[in-house]
Design brief:
Elements: H1 3-16, H2 18-47, E1 58-65, H3 77-86, E2 90-97, E3 100-105, E4 108-114, E5 117-118, H4 122-126, E6 132-133, E7 148-151, H5 153-158, E8 170-173, E9 176-183, E10 196-199, E11 215-220, H6 226-243, H7 245-248, E12 251-257, H8 258-263, H9 266-309, H10 314-350, H11 366-392, H12 396-401, H13 407-447, H14 472-487, E13 507-510, E14 526-529, H15 536-539
Helix pairs in contact: 1-10, 2-9, 2-10, 2-11, 9-11, 9-13, 10-11, 11-13
Length: about 550
């Protein structure tokens, strides 16, 4: 009998037992469905990578300060410039600085967008061309160049109505006039979630070597492995440390794949642990189905004995039984695919606004379908192999004498069934302990509040243009007026201005303690601080006072950690 005959026999057998088939398919569908769902997420986050050619050759470079145990502190523009000149292992290096940008023009209300400043070679380095217009020219990121910008597809569509004559038009970005020279394709938001781009022109602030305000990426030269690039950047870092000991003492260079910078570390661990957890779920489902097949095998022992008597070999019987198991696995996979599509859709909706990188798109591609097909077949073999081997060992004479109930076969089946039950309990216990620890962590995080009832608070972000508010005095006057007007709005109990929202970090400030001898700058203690209006602490429910004791003093309430 050929393989296709085995398939036809298996299909007829499953159709004759619709109840058994339905129970097995549902059990497998749940296990395969959740596995496919999680693998789709893992594939999008960890495996698919950036959506351009040879994305695995694109590296993210940052500085590390091991003396302060800080592994990612950005790069100073002068360091980047030295890297670009001295490095030979990269085809090119580019830099960007994330910032908020406000677009204003005579026809629309001002709107805030994510807009990085990028070096002119950014798009050529990743092989991305504008959909309309041109890329930045090499001289356009130099001091004194005419201001230009490239806008994203969403701005072109939503703000300018897909105007085909958009090129050459002038808009104001942060109150500075710029000329639109290009429009990027719809799904292009590099380096993270950008809406528009302007050239990174080195300002006096950027030129400070201790100001590590830019981020750097590069494409490895052809044939150069990552380890070689890391060794070269380490040598360059040591060279810069000798040349600029004041700013570069203890500073090293970190080189990792670009995707790993945003999706590696804890994120990678979380997704891989999740994939392992649902793998346990699938193993439990397989053990359940294997037990069902063992129970069913008792009723099929007479059928197998007759086939053996008619000349069917042991391998022939095992193959027929495995074909039936794989058919069950494929049916479970078909139903599981529907579950997976629903699960991926729900997860995508849940994380739509968490700020994930633009290249992470949760969709089922060829890799996911190949994985689904593989686990369907592997699952069918996994849960079907032990019952098939067990049933193929049937004692022909004993089975025929006892009407299909072989004593030795029953004993072996009981032992195997007991082993499967113990395995299910063990796997379930592992999942239960892991779920309990995870729930406890979630509860601890949920109970760690910022000392305020967040549901009663509204927030907004502002980016004041330098041209209109050139100094701290002008900015302070604006915020004072804004705060007063907000407090006058009906229903508003209190309002305040702050540089960072609660639990969202702050500035690192060094300080000296009066009465103690001064120490070197790199040994000075530091604090995580924020700048806020006097109403900030009362607004957040704190009873501390930020009133300074004299005009020359600054109040600094501190929280113990």
């Amino acid at each position: 009998m050929s393989f296709f005959q085995d398939v036809r026999v298996g299909v007829r057998r499953l159709l004759r037992e619709p109840g058994f088939t339905a129970v097995v398919v549902v059990a497998l569908a749940l296990g395969i469905g959740v596995n496919t769902t999680v693998f789709t997420l893992v594939n999008a986050v960890l495996f698919r990578g950036l959506p351009f050619e040879q994305a695995d050759r694109v590296m993210f470079l940052s500085s590390s300060d091991h003396a302060k145990n800080r592994n990612d502190i950005g790069v100073s523009y002068p360091d980047f410039r030295d890297w670009r000149v001295q490095s030979k292992t990269f085809r090119g290096l580019a830099a960007f600085a994330q910032t908020g940008m406000v677009i204003s023009d005579s026809n629309h209300a001002p709107e805030r967008y994510n807009g990085p400043r990028v070096t002119a070679n950014t798009f050529s380095l990743i092989g991305q061309k504008p959909m309309l217009g041109r890329d930045f020219l090499p001289e356009e990121d130099h001091v004194g160049a005419s201001p230009v910008s490239i806008i994203g597809y969403s701005i072109w569509e939503n703000r300018f109505g897909r105007d085909p004559d958009i090129l050459g038009k002038s808009i104001r970005i942060n109150d500075a006039a710029t000329t639109i020279v290009g429009v990027m394709p719809k799904d292009m938001k590099f380096p993270l979630n950008a809406d528009l781009w302007i050239p990174l022109v080195p300002t006096p602030e950027f030129e400070k070597r201790e100001a590590r305000d830019v981020q750097v990426f590069g494409r490895l030269a052809d044939g150069v492995p990552l380890a070689t690039a890391r060794n070269e950047m380490e040598l360059i870092g040591r060279r810069l440390e000798k040349e600029y000991p004041k700013s570069n003492q203890g500073i090293t260079t970190r080189v990792i794949p670009y995707n790993d910078e945003f999706n590696g570390g804890p994120i990678r661990i979380v997704f891989l642990v999740l994939l392992g957890a649902v793998g346990f779920v699938l193993l439990i489902a397989c053990a359940n189905v294997a037990n069902l097949l063992l129970a069913r095998s008792l009723a099929r022992s007479r059928e197998v004995s007759i086939r053996t008597a008619l000349g069917a070999g042991r391998w022939r019987i095992i193959r027929q039984l495995l074909v039936e198991s794989v058919l069950l696995g494929l049916l479970g996979g078909a139903v599981g695919l529907l579950i997976a599509k629903w699960g991926v859709r729900m997860f995508d909706l849940a994380v739509a606004n968490v700020g994930k990188p633009y290249w992470i798109v949760f969709r089922m591609d060829f890799t996911v379908f190949a994985y689904l097909a593989a686990i369907c077949v592997a699952t069918g073999i996994l849960f079907g192999l032990a019952p098939a081997i067990q049933l193929s060992k049937v004692d022909l004479n004993a089975t025929l004498k006892e009407g299909g109930r072989g004593t030795s076969g029953n004993a072996r089946s009981r032992y195997l069934s007991g082993f499967l039950v113990v395995s299910e309990v063990a796997l379930s216990l592992v999942l239960l302990v892991g779920a309990g620890l995870m729930i406890r962590s979630f509860l601890n995080a949920y109970n760690r509040t910022a000392g305020m009832h967040a549901e009663r608070y509204l927030t907004m972000r502002l980016a004041l243009p330098d041209q209109k508010y050139p100094d701290d005095g002008a900015r302070t006057r604006f915020y004072d007026q804004l705060e007063a007007r907000l407090r006058a709005v009906p229903g508003v109990e209190s309002a305040a201005v702050v540089t960072h929202l609660p639990l969202q970090g702050g500035f690192e400030w060094k300080f000296e303690i009066e009465g103690k001898p001064p120490v070197e700058e790199d040994q000075q203690p530091s604090v995580l601080a924020l700048i806020a209006s006097p109403a900030y602490l009362p607004t957040t429910g704190s009873h501390w006072s930020m009133a300074a004791t004299s005009p020359t003093q600054m109040a600094c309430p501190a929280r113990a950690r």
